[in-house]
Amino acid sequence: MTTATERRQMKSAARLYAVQALFQMEASGQAVKAVCREFETHRFGATYDEGEFAEGDVDHFRKLVEEAVNWQAMIDQLTDRALVAKWPIDRIDPVLRALFRAAGAEITQMDTPPKVTITEYVDVAKAFFPEGKEAKFVNAVLDHMAREAKPAAF
Which domain CATH number covers 119? Predict the structure, then answer.
């Protein structure tokens, strides 16, 4: 039986994997099912010479990736409205684009409280960009997106 802390950690890992999967799909043109299968087989809990991958919540991972793909146009529009004028989503770093799509799916299509989603994806940004200002940027964009999508939560 998994504890509440372990379940939270597994969801956090699923979010990180979802961002990686969405990035990989965009970079390679692979389909959702193929990428999800690869991640579930070769990343979730796997051990390699470089280290061990965290165990992830497979259901949360699948839902994030599928919803991000299914609602991508709407999520991209929501993200565009949160970005600085004349700086559309297609001009930002592809990792950030994948992050905004995964977070946007969670904000708009799932029951996770928006403040939890924002905190979780700021942590994901820190994992990808430990030295940069991206975490503050992610926080500002996701806050704007969440306030537009779910104003009653604020």
Answer: 1.10.940.10
